[in-house]
Every structure is written in C-alpha cells, then in structure tokens.
Amino acid sequence: MPVPKGAISRPAACARAAARPRRSAGRTVCYLPAVPREYLRRLSDAIVHAQRPIRVLRAINWAPEVHARFFRHGARELPRPEYPALGFDTEAKVKELRELRRRIRGRNPVEDLLRQKCDEFILLAQLLAARGSRRFYELSRRVYGDPRDRFPDHNVDNLGIARMWASRPRARDEEQVFSAEDAASRIAEICAPLLGGHVQVLVRTRLTANAAAGATGITLRKGARFSERQVSAMAHHEGLWHVLTSLNGYRQPVLTVLGVGLPRHTESQEGGGIVAEFLTGYITDERYIELGERTIAIDMAARGADFLEVYRYLLARFPPEKAALMSERVFRGGLLEGGAPFTKDAAYQRGYCRTFNFLRAALEQRDVELVRAFLAGKMSVDDAELVRDLVDEGLCVGPVYLPEWFIDIDRLNAMCTHSVTMNRFSLPSVSRYYARRRGGGATGTLVGRLRESAELEEELAPRPAGDEGDLGE
C-alpha cells in the first residue's frame, strides 16, 4: 500500500536511523507508523486554538483593591476577592476538547500525548469552573501535584526539600534600585539578542507574582521594585526560559502544541526557570527560602489553615505586603477558610531537582543532543527522549533559540563535573569530621592524623555501582 503524501514511513525512518550511530544497543528510534504530517499538524493546531481562552492565572489572580481593603481593616479579616468572568462557557469548552480527543485515533506515543493534552485542558477548564470550591483544590492536585508528593525516581519528600530550602540562611539585603518600568527595559535589553527581538516586556497592575511570562511576552507587577540581581534572574527565568521554549515550540513544523506545552510540562517549566537562575549565577538563598515557604504555606492550607493563619506565619518571615501576596498565591481560586489551596507553587521543588538531575545525567552520558531536544518546546523531562527521537525522524526540529547557560556548554559541563564529584561525599560525614577538629580531640597527634587519614580514605573509597552517596540530604 502506498504511503500517504507527507506521511512518516516506518521503514523509511528506520532506514534513515540505521545510517546513524545507535544511542543504545537494541534500541529503536522509530515511534510512528505511516502517519500523515498534515493530520498531526491539524490536530496540534486544533489543540492550540481550543486552549486559547483557558488562562488560569488571569482567571484567579486578585485585583489590587483586595489587598488594599485587607490592610485597611487591619489585616484581621479574610479577604473577599471577586473573580472576573471567564469569557467562555466551560461546559462547551469541555465538550469541544472531548470531541477533539475523539478525532485522535492512532495508537502511538505522539497521538497518546495529544490525547493526554486534551485531557489536561479539560481538567483546567473544569478547574476554572470550580473557583471558590473544594473541587478546585482536587483538580489542582491532579494538574499540578501536591506538596507531599514524592519523586518518581528517588524516595525523596518534596515537602522535605521545601523545608530545607526555607531553613537556609537569609541573603544579605540587596538595594532594590529598579522600578518595574526600569526593570522592564533592562530585561528586554538582556533577552532581545538571544530571542531575535521577539519579546515584549510590559508593566501591569493585576499581577500576583512580581513577574509572569506568556508565549511571547513578560509582564511585571506595577509598583514592584527589584535589585540588579533580581532583574537578571527574571530575564533568564521568564524570558530566556519560559518565552524561549514557547517560541521554539511554536516554530515546530508539525507539533505546534510544544508552544503551549506537552502534558505535565508545568513542573519542568517552573523548575527549569529556577535552574536557569542558578546556572547563570543570579539566584540567592532568599529565592530558595521564598520558594520553600510557598510550598509549606500550601501544605498548611491543605491541612485546614485559613488565609489569616498562613498570612501570620509568613509575616514572621517577610514584610506585610510580600506576606499577603504570597498568601494570595496559595488561596487564589480556592477556599480562604482553608482546606482547598491552589497547588501550582508546590511544583517548584520537584521541577528544580528533576530538571537539574536530568541535565547532569544527560551530560554525564555525553548526550548534549538530549538537552538540546529539551529546549525545543515546553515539555516534561520525561518526554525529552521522545522529542529527541522525533527530531531524528524529522517530525520535530531542534531549538532556534538557546539560553545563555546552554550556549556556554563548556561551563555547563564543568558544573556537571563539579556536581558528580561532590556527590561522592556524604555531607554529614564531612561535617562530623570538621566538628571533631574544632573540638580538639586527637587532632595533631600521630594517632589522630592516622585516624583522619583512614576516615578520608573511607570517604573516597569506590562505592557499589549506582551509589552516588547519601540521597536527599
């Protein structure tokens, strides 16, 4: 039977793959039978079109008057947010997405992802329909996860990571010399050369976060002030990560859905933004502390704490306005009386750890192309392998725009080398060693030096295969 025009032929794809070196013995890179590209492009475009009115943060963020009223009443009464009209019929949107899902008939990983993306947008439409109810929280957990979720590849507690971040030493105060308007100009200046000028930075009033990114633009909160380091961090997080991966995704010849994100992409997107801040050197412990406290606050609300209890907890750690905005992030869309928070911010710890581990695992295997594929759109780290294979087969293309931290690949490789080197040491053991030295003990005597030498040799001794030292410290 002749292959339809524009189709991806399995024999042809396998023949092309056979001409290239295999990545692993016995592994095939051929995912698709004969599937017309035009068919996949139509489905992908239809999903992108159908999701356009579903704007979660825009639909649940509070107006500035809510906070003004809260402080006028002495911060003693629960806020009374009013949410704007959605601008679309949620039942009709769910019906449209379900009908679109039924049109996806193939049984292969790509069409499986498209079906899952329809399911995700259905959940998001239902989430917005459930604003102000407990069902909002239940749907939020299904989309974004829970503060107490564990990692799929390690027995590590997400909330435990958040508590560790929150316990770090406070950063020294940095002078916040940039207004939102000045910061917008500086961010555009940093991003424009790496994004071909395809980024717009605006300042708006109705924004809970200090900054947020859309497909081609960044928005800063009017009235916010920033240090020079924070401005650079926002440029690399919002512009050279969120916007960059959107632009690369929308430039895909077939799977334009990569512009809005494959299923489960939020965790890797938010975590990847923090990784970008770290890799470019613009993060401080103050940032880790805030991210950790957000997740702790979500967990408090999930277990019954109301807005005032969470606000007072955060007020002991942050200025009043910041504590109120952080509390809004927890309660927007949910129940201010407690028991039903918005859980999106709980994704940062998992996303950060999993994205950084993905990068160092790929680089440890000398697989730079896997990292490059990860930059080709918005996706979970779990789908990067599939996208890389689809690039090999010609269904996807590599990224047009690259973040600064990837362009300097030698520096990135060196950071990976540092990470895997230090992973061989147990930090509690190192801490105990120096605690004994500070306490005097046998240090300085021949016996003491011999004991220390033996302990050091034990630390450096080869470990069993697969053991990279203590996990979850």
From TrEMBL:
Signal peptide: none annotated. The keyword Protease applies. Its cofactor is Zn(2+). It comes from the Bacteria. Residues 454-473 are annotated as: Disordered. Pfam families: MATCAP. Keywords: Hydrolase, Metalloprotease, Protease. This is Membrane protein. It comes from Anaeromyxobacter oryzae.
